């Protein structure tokens, strides 16, 4: 399991546990809260009933008027729509006991004369306390529970009896169920949004930077030119900058070793030629040979200078990670300029140059792009026989912009196709048999990669070579 999957799994599990705990705690607390809200109005109702009884004249605790009023209310039919529930009847129970706890009135008519002195609501109220109880008619079914709240009936300053009002708590079932349903839906939606936002935050702050850093590390492995991505200023950003510093230090050491080794190898041949010519001149040679040896010394010296210049230019280019001052560049203008510049040299060799250029603007460095295309055209001239053709063309697609230089020359041997972009690798020119510095195509590839693109070379089906510079969509 990769780190992204682990993070997502961890976020989902932790969030689910937290949300489940919160939901369980909330649902457990709903019923007690509803019972609390039910108990308070029962306290008020019991106190009002007790006061009514106290102020009713007569020796009996419950007068006929009070009894008839309660029985009449219990028989009423209601049409009260209370949110999701329609209430159709009065479902409270009222009973009154004397000072001994004996029931003297019961609105249900079933327990008159019974001893209720041991029920908490009656016993505590007769003792001068707060009397309340909840009792189930079916002990296995919580929906059969009835809450009773009692109030003392005082006569002549003494507790003469108790009035207790009962309310079935089962009527709360509809409200509790609806509340639980809404809370569950709300928690699920809120939890989903929280998980989504948290996942998005972790993706932006952790997963995506790690992916960028991984891609950057792989580009280093494959020696591709990629700038360090923006990773922020957290630990991942610090790791990225540390990796960049390490890469630069290691590349610097390897770079110097590699270039010194290659430069030394390349100048051995010219130095040997110069040394041999100098020894022959020192030993004394005929005048006609002297001029030839001096020309050899000059040619080999020029070759060393060209290698050094090209090497410095390429080294400077390779040390760049991004373009310093990119600007909009029309590749069509560059192609036409390069074709025009090399037309005289091509005509001398009997070669025709054509430029099929449509406007194609990219963000880049016009000087480097011009140098790269000039290298390609010069190579094409060197490898194209008299009577041949060189064409420069631009094609555009959703994949990007491509600039192709095609010649009708001798083509590239199969063994060399995968090596021509290597530094110092060169093929002999057909006309002279001499090799170049072997840095031109390496320069071309560096320019393409610096612009976020790539360079590709292939042999044509009917002969010749085609070199294409690919640039990303703008």
List its traits.
Helix Hairpins, rod-shaped, alpha+beta, Beta-Lactamase, 19% strand, 9 helices
Structure description:
- The protein is an alpha+beta fold and 474 residues long.
- It has three domains: 174 residues, PAS domain (Beta-Lactamase), CATH 3.30.450; 99 residues, Helix Hairpins (Orthogonal Bundle), CATH 1.10.287; 145 residues, 2-Layer Sandwich (Heat Shock Protein 90).
- It contains nine helices and 14 strands.
- Strands 4-3-7-6-5 form a five-stranded antiparallel sheet.
- A hairpin with a 4-residue loop joins strand 3 and strand 4.
- It is rod-shaped and about 160 Å long.
- The mean pLDDT is 81.
Task: Outline the fold blueprint.
Layout: H1 3-54, H2 64-74, E1 77-82, E2 85-89, E3 93-98, E4 103-106, H3 120-126, E5 132-136, E6 145-155, E7 158-168, H4 173-221, H5 235-283, H6 287-318, E8 327-330, H7 331-348, E9 352-356, E10 361-364, H8 366-383, E11 389-397, E12 400-407, H9 440-450, E13 454-459, E14 465-471
Please give the alpha-carbon distance between the first and last residues.
37 Å
Low-confidence regions? none
The name of the CATH architecture of the largest domain is 2-Layer Sandwich
Order of helices and strands: HHEEEEHEEEHHHEHEEHEEHEE
How does the overall form come out from the CA principal axes? rod-shaped
* Tally of alpha and pi helices: 9
Taking all residues together, what is the mean pLDDT? 81
Strand content: 15-25%
């Amino acid at each position: 399991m990769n780190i992204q999957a682990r993070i997502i799994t961890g976020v989902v599990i932790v969030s689910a546990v937290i949300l489940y705990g919160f939901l369980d705690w909330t649902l457990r607390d709903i019923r007690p809260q509803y019972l609390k809200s039910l108990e308070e109005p029962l306290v008020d109702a019991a106190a009002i009933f007790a006061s009514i009884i106290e102020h009713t004249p007569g020796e009996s605790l419950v007068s006929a008027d009070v009894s008839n009023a309660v029985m009449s209310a219990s028989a009423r039919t209601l049409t009260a729509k209370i949110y999701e529930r329609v209430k159709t009847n009065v479902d409270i129970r009222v009973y009154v006991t004397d000072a001994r706890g004996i029931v003297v009135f019961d609105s249900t008519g079933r327990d008159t004369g019974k001893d209720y002195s041991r029920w908490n609501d009656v016993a505590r109220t007769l003792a001068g306390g707060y009397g309340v109880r909840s009792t189930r008619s079916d002990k296995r079914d919580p929906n059969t529970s009835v809450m009773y709240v009692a109030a003392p009936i005082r006569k002549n300053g003494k507790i003469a009896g108790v009035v207790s009002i009962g309310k079935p708590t089962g009527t709360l079932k509809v409200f509790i169920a609806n509340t639980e349903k809404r809370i569950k839906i709300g928690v699920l939606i809120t939890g989903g949004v929280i998980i989504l936002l948290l996942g998005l935050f972790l993706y932006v702050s952790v997963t995506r930077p790690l992916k960028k850093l991984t891609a950057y590390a792989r580009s280093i492995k494959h020696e591709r030119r990629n700038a360090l991505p923006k990773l922020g200023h957290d630990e991942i950003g610090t790791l990225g900058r540390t990796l960049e510093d390490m890469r630069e230090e290691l590349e610097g050491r390897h770079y110097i070793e590699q270039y010194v080794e290659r430069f030394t190898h390349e100048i051995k041949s010219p130095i040997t030629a110069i040394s041999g010519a100098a020894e022959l001149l020192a030993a004394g040679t005929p005048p006609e040979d002297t001029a030839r040896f001096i020309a050899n010394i000059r040619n080999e010296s020029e070759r060393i200078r060209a290698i050094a210049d090209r090497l410095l230019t390429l080294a400077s280019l390779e040390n760049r990670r991004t373009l310093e001052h990119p600007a909009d560049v029309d590749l069509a203008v560059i192609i036409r300029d390069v074709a025009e510049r090399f037309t005289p040299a091509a005509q001398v060799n009997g070669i025709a140059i054509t430029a099929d250029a449509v406007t194609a603007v990219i963000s880049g460095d016009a000087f480097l792009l011009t140098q790269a295309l000039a290298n390609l055209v010069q190579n094409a001239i060197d490898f194209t026989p008299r009577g041949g053709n060189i064409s420069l063309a631009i094609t555009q697609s959703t994949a990007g912009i491509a600039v192709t230089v095609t010649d009708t020359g001798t083509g590239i041997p199969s063994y060399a196709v995968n090596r021509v972009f290597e530094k110092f690798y060169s093929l002999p020119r057909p006309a002279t048999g001499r090799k170049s510095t072997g840095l031109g195509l390496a320069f071309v590839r560096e320019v393409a990669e610096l612009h976020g693109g790539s360079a590709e070379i292939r042999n044509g089906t009917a002969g010749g070579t085609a070199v294409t510079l690919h640039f990303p969509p703008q």
